[in-house]
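Rather than argue in generalities, we have chosen a single entry, letters for residues, whole numbers for local backbone shapes, without further comment.
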Amino acid sequence: MHAWESIQKTLNYIEEHIGEEIQIEELADLAGLSLFYYQRLFARLGKKPVREYVKLRRLARACESLRNKENSILNVAVEYGFGGRETFTRAFKDTYGITPAQYRDKPVGLMNYDKPDLSLNYRMVDEGVPLIGEGLVLEYNRRTLREPVNFLGVVGYYSFTKGKMMGERTGVDESDAIWKQFFDALKDIPHIPGGRILGVSYHGDAPDGYSTYFIGVEPCEEDSRFVSWQLPAREYVICSFEADNPKQLMASMGKMMKFTRGWLKSHGLIADGFFPEMYDHHTPEMAYMEMWIPFRARNGSE
């Protein structure tokens, strides 16, 4: 068994026993490693110390339960191993910047720390070959866009910490408010019925520490009330990404982006400037999106 497989085994165990008392010594025994080496390896592969990781995963799971207002905050705290409401509230506010009561009264999108699928760090696939991970299917292909594609929609900003990818950041998800703004405006945007929806991050005129985020739909005519953005004609690496449902799709975005970074590097490429997400055909049985990644050759220092 590879070292990462030993850590993945304990990640699975933590998820299955998330509300129970979890002893690091038991996890080390499960992994077949010394306590010292287990904690060191876990922090390197999981990006967090064991106890911090367990806390963040408990909070992520607790967020789902908080949406059910019939379940008291105290019950949620006990169910996910926090012991009492005060401890739970303090951990929740430290992580997300709001209290559980505030989140319940006015739900907002939250960024949670994802359970890693470490196998994705040790597998590479060629173009056109599907890769199956935990709850997702990825496939990479190069495609040349011959003509630019126009989109019409709304724009906003979200805070961005360089070096931390989706699934490793926690707090209020500021892009969620931009998506709500877009869907509120969609009925007024002149658009092609069934047209593709695009979300794209780029620097634009965002202030320091922030990224610009545009969300739009393929228009059938111009409308000065809304913001326009053009997907340039050029070559892209397209990562097609399937999951069982939209919730699973969003929950797996961090895993997809981490794997994509490694895939580009293994092929001598690097993303070039902006990251469009294309949404065009969800069904009750499947959620689907494409990441259109403009790229260039990687130089030796990147």
Remarks:
- The chain is about 35% helix and 25% strand.
